[in-house]
Amino acid sequence: MSETTGRTTTDTIDREKSPSSAAGTATSTSLVKKDPAGDRGKTSISDIVVAKIAGIATREIDGVQDVGGAAERVVGRVREVLPGTTTSTTQGITVEVGERQAAVDVSIVADYGVAIHQLAAAIRRNVVTAIEQMTGLEVTEVNVTVHDIHFGDEDEGTDETPRVQ
Hints:
It comes from Gordonia sesuvii. The protein has 165 residues and is α+β, with helices and mostly antiparallel strands. Helices cover 39% and strands 20% of the residues. Strands 1, 2, 3 and 4 form a four-stranded mixed β-sheet that branches. It starts with a helix and ends in a 15-residue tail after the last strand.
């Protein structure tokens, strides 16, 4: 290997670390991690986007019967009945989004028999993973509030014929 080839390789590596490094001096590693397209514009992620991601990630967990407090669930049921409307994916989800970080509050109804502490941990893992992978934001916290417990036999009573006809 020639001496010239060695210098060229070193110069190339140094330029990759810092575009302004003409003398071949090493610079901080933060420049290496910089997105090459980052200087061509700014990406802003709306709160609603993060809330939708968190809502979908929460509903993916077994043991979550519903998302939201009592009032939110009533409004959600009304929306399901009205033609042309859909269930809100942000129901029961509150987020705060900064430039690099996000915090999430999740309200749920758990299925009876599920270990609530394990359910909350699974929700946290899934929400953090989904938001960080999709947005690149660091999730600082996911607070889970369990509003109610759902018993499986509560739905069975609605299929019976009425007592009075």
